[in-house]
Amino acid sequence: MTEFDYLYDELLRKILREGVEVENRTGVNTIKVPSHTFEFNIEKEFPILTTKQMFYRQAIIEMLWIWQMGSNNVLDLHDRNVHIWDEWMVDQDGIYRIYEPTTEQYDPDKEVVVLDPLSAPLDNLNAKLSPKLDENGNVMTAKSMIKGKNIKEAKYYGIEYANTIGTAYGYIVNRYQHTKNLIDTIKNNPNDRRMVKSLWQDEFLRTAVLPSCVWSTEWDVTKNKINLMVHQRSCDVPLGLPFNVTQYATLLKMIAHVTDKEPGTITYSIKDAHVYVNQLNGIKKQMERVEKYNSLSKLDDSYLETLKQSLLEQQKLFDKDSDEYNELDSNIRIIDMIFNPTKTELILNPDIDDFFLFDNSKDLKDIKIKNYKHMGKIKFPITQ
Asked: Running DSSP on this structure, what letter comes out for residue 128?
């Protein structure tokens, strides 16, 4: 297990121990703590979660989509076989549709009034939105575009934002040339105390489908090491945090590489660290894996080998898609991690000295993760 595994597990337990259940815009309650901060040294260990499988290729491609490509176009992710932003993509008609989290009875004819995000004043983005009128002055309505899912709400962003997430994330990075300016400053003025890159720009919040969760980074160079502070306004801990930590660790190592510096520490600050109530079963299973790893680590090798062989025999009795098989698989993986511990590494192509020339295709030819082991999959529901 990694240091990040234990930091992550500590946060999950803190949320369950101290958290407060609250309502939110999604309709699925969360259990939250108001803030949490942790720090880790990138030189010592690359932070990646092992208590469940982390799809790091998708995480790194999403980071490059934002910080290298400066894109808000979800089709750019589709080209790379990444679909994590599909639920927040504006449809071809310029309408963003929000769906009910569960559908007991599908109603394809259900219509909702389309709202106008620009009707909210800049100083009150939570104000009640007005209906969007079409060119004839009629109120626009929308139906579901996903078979089997009932539409809950709809907003009109405009045809110009079709297939995008609006003016968020990569859109802001590109508009303000955040990445280029950051690299130039580190190279030419490393002692600058103003290396702050904000994705939270008031004038673009109304047309952002989902305003940036990781909204600010601060960069520091001390003794030729780059240190990074990451600020996150809202954190879905089971789904978002593992991605975000690996993404910003990768970004830090890449920026250090192209500026001829060393990666230092990441200080990670979260406001509203939460789990959705429909994620509780998954996080309890994840915490049980930590306990199991710690307890099995105390046993002698001969016992563990006997236990592993027994588990392998039991696996033969179950279908590979069954919960029983996956539970046995997780236990076998845990034993293997104890027997054969590895140190996960991020390997960058040493011949690339320009951040914008790193391969961002689905193959990620210039960025590799080596020696990654995990304890198996845990599927968490996505809440829109």
From this structure: P
- What is the rounded CA–CA span in Å between residue 98 and residue 104? 16
Residue 309 phi, psi (nearest 5): -65, -35
Please tell me the distance from the alpha carbon of residue 364 to that of residue 357, in angstroms, as a whole number. Answer: 11
CATH of domain 3-83+166-280+342-370: 3.30.572.10
70: alpha, beta or left, given left = phi > 0 and alpha = psi -120 to 50?
A: left
Is residue 36 within 8 A of residue 9, CB to CB? The reply is no
- For tokens 């958290």, name the residue: 19
Cα 266 from Cα 229, distance rounded (Å): 6
Taking alpha carbons only, the member of 64, 75, 79, 74 closest to residue 366 is 64
Residue with tokens 């001829």: 260
Catalytic residues: 213
Domain spans of the chain, in order of start: 3-83+166-280+342-370, 90-161
pLDDT in tens, 116-172: 999 999 888 889 999 999 999 999 999 999 999 999 999 999 999 999 999 999 999
**β-bridge partners, 370:** 345
pTM reported for the whole predicted model: 0.95
